[in-house]
Specification:
By secondary structure, the chain is of the alpha+beta class. The protein folds into two domains: about 5-100, Nucleic acid-binding proteins (OB fold (Dihydrolipoamide Acetyltransferase, E2P), Beta Barrel), CATH 2.40.50.140; about 125-170 and about 205-450, BirA Bifunctional Protein, domain 2 (2-Layer Sandwich), CATH 3.30.930. It contains 13 helices and 16 strands. The strands form three sheets. It has an eight-stranded mixed β-sheet with strand order 6-10-11-16-15-14-13-12, sandwiched between helices. It starts with 5 loop residues before the first helix and ends in a 20-residue tail after the last helix. About 35% of the residues are buried. The structure holds 4-amino-1,4-dioxobutan-2-aminium adenosine-5'-monophosphate (4AD) and magnesium ion (MG). The site of 4-amino-1,4-dioxobutan-2-aminium adenosine-5'-monophosphate has 21 residues, from strand 11, strand 15, strand 16 and helix 13. 4-amino-1,4-dioxobutan-2-aminium adenosine-5'-monophosphate binds near residues 387, 430 and 435.
């Protein structure tokens, strides 16, 4: 008999038919006449109840069905008389795929803390919470491709290994095949990277943007969606050492077009989750965050406030609020400042533009004032910065001057400058931190809980 996934079994048309279900046992309870098993197969947050009449099964058989064990059941799907479920399977045939020892199975009990589950990252996808988060994550990834593909953007794969350190977005992880105990050395004692795998030092990328610009200035509109790596020692609930980023880049776009795209994009993703992940979001709302669905609906309805960094600083200074980090024109905003603007002052998402050039990357379009650049950060409730982007400097001379001012080595940059040398065009783009979007949509509070296998300082176990 063909297996039915549990997500499909609640289809009313199946009542009265014979079904075959497979999954992992969540709980078993009952008495010597009848036993009830809650079975989950990962396809939905919902469990299907399996009813074992003890005249058909032996104690010996049922003893194997403990929390975490995996089974196959065939039987008739009937309407349920009990509370809490619409239908149940009356077991006729049982196969145990694998047992799970009651003494050692780590998820034996319900209600483990998220901290405990982080230590059990290899098994936590089997919990309700992580099942829900991972299904929402998957739906959001699909929504992202759908959004861009429907609008004629091309998916561009940019390299993960790079020999350029130009972006300056963060400290990099080095990639080498040299023997670290005995590397080849030059006469002055420095390591001889010409003997390394790529003939020069290489690292894991912090962003696909620079190569993304090569794509955009050829295909018109591209997006990347891949992992990026940052070796900062940031132990915060918003930072990972390995995270996924979506970076659209569009030729002939200015910063206004870029802001419109960012706003439409993020609302589309949130709406997609509301439309397609109802059961999981309701579960997460009930367990962790009573305001979750209302907040998501609010963001989709709201129009994002747009103001300049300078205006933002004025509001923060005039607020009279005591911040841990003081604010002054020229300093980078901390998440407490971003969240004040979004959660307390405007009470909706904010796009801040025109940041001081000294706290932003070299490639951003320089404003007439000589002090600011056409940067844009999208700030979100609960999260702070969710998107960072800009219109790019399209003028060869101005870009070159900035590269020289910042002492960025030309050997890293010649290929990038060629986009400005040959057929340069105005263009713009941004990067969305995928895990920050998943954080927002699931209402979880620690970024380590929205990626299956988090990488952060000191942690690469699973
Ligand atoms: O602001 P960032 O550093 O921008 C860039 O990398 C540009 N190249 C993007 C572009 O214009 N194409 O990073 C973009 C976003 C941030 O807004 C944040 O959401 C996320 O990536 N992010 C992180 N997420 C998790 N862990 C980290 N360590 C992150 N650093 C940035
Ligand atoms: Mg940023």
């Amino acid at each position: 008999m063909k297996r039915t996934k549990i997500v499909d079994i609640f289809n009313p048309g199946l009542i009265g038919t014979e079904v075959s279900v497979m999954g992992w046992v969540r709980t078993r309870r009952g008495n010597k006449h009848v036993q009830f098993v809650a079975l989950n197969d990962g396809s939905t947050i919902k469990n299907i109840q399996i009813v074992f009449e003890m005249e058909k099964f032996s104690d010996e058989e049922l003893k194997l069905i403990t929390t975490g064990s995996s089974i196959h059941v065939e039987g008739k799907l009937v309407e349920s008389m009990g509370k809490g479920q619409s239908c149940e399977v009356q077991a006729e045939k049982l196969t145990v795929f694998g047992t799970a020892d009651v003494e050692t199975y780590p998820l034996q009990k319900k209600g483990h803390t998220l901290e405990f589950l982080r230590e059990k990252a290899h098994l936590r996808p089997r919990t309700n919470t992580f099942g829900a988060v991972l299904r929402v994550r998957s739906a959001l990834a699909f929504a992202i491709h759908k959004f861009f593909q429907e609008r004629g953007f091309f998916y561009l794969n940019t390299p993960l290994i790079t020999a350029s350190d130009a972006e300056g977005a963060g400290a990099m992880f080095q990639v080498t095949t040299l023997d670290l105990n005995n590397p080849p050395r030059l006469e002055d004692g420095k390591v001889d990277f010409s003997a390394d795998f790529f003939g020069k030092p290489a690292s894991l990328t912090v962003s696909g943007q620079l190569e993304g610009e090569l794509g955009a200035t050829a295909l018109g509109a591209i997006y990347t969606f891949g992992p990026t790596f940052r070796a900062e020692n940031s132990n915060t609930p918003r930072h990972l050492s390995e995270f996924w980023m979506i970076e659209p880049e569009v030729a002939f776009y200015d910063i206004e077009d870029n802001m419109d795209l960012a706003e439409e994009f993020i609302k589309y993703c949130v709406q997609y989750a509301l439309d397609n992940c109802k059961d999981d979001l309701e579960f997460l709302q009930q367990m962790y965050d009573k305001e979750l669905i209302a907040r998501l609906e609010e963001v989709v309805k709201s129009s994002f406030v747009r103001l300049t960094y300078t205006e933002g600083i004025d509001i923060l200074k005039a607020s009279g609020k005591k911040f841990e980090f003081p604010v002054d024109w020229g300093t980078d905003l901390q998440s407490e400042h971003e969240r004040f603007l979004v959660e307390e002052h405007f009470k909706r998402p904010v796009i801040l533009t025109d940041y001081p050039k000294d706290i932003k990357a070299f490639y951003m379009k320089q404003n007439e004032d000589g002090k600011t650049v056409r940067a844009m950060d999208v700030l979100f409730p609960q999260i702070g910065e969710i998107i960072g982007g800009s219109e790019r400097e399209a003028d060869y001379q101005k870009l070159l001057a900035r590269i020289e001012e910042l002492h960025i080595p030309m050997k890293d940059m010649w290929w990038y400058l060629d986009t400005r040398k040959y057929g340069t065009v105005p263009h713009a783009g941004f990067g969305l931190g995928f895990e920050r979007l998943v954080l927002f949509v699931t209402g979880m509070t620690n970024i380590r809980d929205v990626i299956p296998f988090p990488r952060y300082p000191g942690n690469a176990e699973f």
